[in-house]
Task: inverse folding
């Protein structure tokens, strides 16, 4: 067991986690970030970010996250490469166990584990990631202005991105897959009337191809569609399984339930970023990270007054 008790432990080092670490450590809270993978989270996959304030010429996802890491550690936040496998609520203390056999304890805890999307797992998807394959229409849609794109997925976010992309692209192919749309969305009938949107239903994509950038997709009915980009908007894969023992509430999809102050249903445990399934943007994640840290600090001060 770690002999130290931290004021704030943050699980996850994406935009939300690093922002929370910056806020907490800058106010002299003993702060630890635990990250099982690379520091930076899913933002590392962003080839170029144009919608984060303060960078009018844009910045790559890895460069942005490196700056956030440097800013957090500048004020004393520790970052350790540890995979958290369990969280226990011990009242005034929260206990975390890691895959390496370590234990850490904290007065407050911020969950910022993010989410990952299901992949298509087809030929070309990994090869063209950042070169025509994207997982966020709001983030990358403007890069495909006046071009032809496809949106793959049948959930609410996919429907939303079909509409978003139709505002800037010349042509949008809506490909929900053989299962179709997961629900009846009222927007769909409106979108079917848009001449820029073509629904290609009852088929799956089997290949994404091209030379340097995406140029086409192949379907399992033999069709080949010429295009410039593919937006894969499938269901999220939750990373909230570690919360079971602590009793933190999630919705049916595994998204952590938190209030406007990022508080969960367990005193002293907060959540921020994509794991809350709100916004799913770097800028919204940083805002939630700041709020979670500010409210975690208030909680730690309340403990000291007991």
Result:
């Amino acid at each position: 067991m770690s002999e130290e008790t931290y004021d704030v432990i943050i699980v996850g080092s994406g935009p939300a986690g690093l922002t929370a670490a910056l806020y907490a450590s800058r106010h002299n809270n003993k702060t630890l970030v635990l990250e099982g993978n690379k520091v930076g989270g899913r933002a590392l996959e962003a080839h170029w970010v144009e919608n984060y304030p303060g960078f009018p010429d844009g910045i790559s996802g890895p460069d942005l996250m490196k700056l956030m890491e440097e800013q957090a550690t500048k004020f004393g936040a520790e970052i350790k490469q540890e995979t958290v496998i369990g969280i226990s609520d011990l009242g005034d203390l929260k206990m975390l166990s890691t895959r390496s056999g370590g234990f850490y304890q904290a007065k407050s805890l911020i969950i910022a584990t993010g989410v990952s999307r299901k992949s298509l797992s087809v030929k070309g998807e990994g090869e063209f990631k950042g070169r025509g394959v994207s997982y966020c229409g709001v983030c990358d849609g403007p890069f495909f202005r006046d071009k032809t794109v496809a949106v793959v997925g049948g959930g609410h976010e996919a429907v939303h991105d079909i509409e978003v992309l139709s505002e800037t692209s010349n042509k949008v192919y809506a490909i929900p897959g053989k299962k179709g749309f997961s629900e009846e969305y009222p927007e769909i009938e409106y979108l079917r009337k848009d001449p820029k949107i073509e629904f290609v239903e009852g088929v799956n994509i089997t290949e994404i191809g091209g030379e340097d950038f995406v140029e086409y997709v192949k379907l399992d009915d033999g069709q080949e569609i010429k295009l410039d980009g593919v937006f894969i908007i499938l269901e999220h894969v939750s990373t909230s399984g570690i919360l079971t023992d602590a009793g933190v509430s999630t919705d049916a999809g595994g998204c952590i339930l938190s209030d406007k102050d990022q508080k969960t249903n367990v005193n002293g445990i907060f959540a921020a970023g994509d794991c809350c399934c709100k916004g799913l943007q770097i800028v919204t994640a940083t805002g939630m990270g700041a709020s979670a840290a500010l409210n975690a600090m208030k909680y730690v001060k309340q403990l000291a007054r007991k």
The chain has a mean pLDDT of 90.
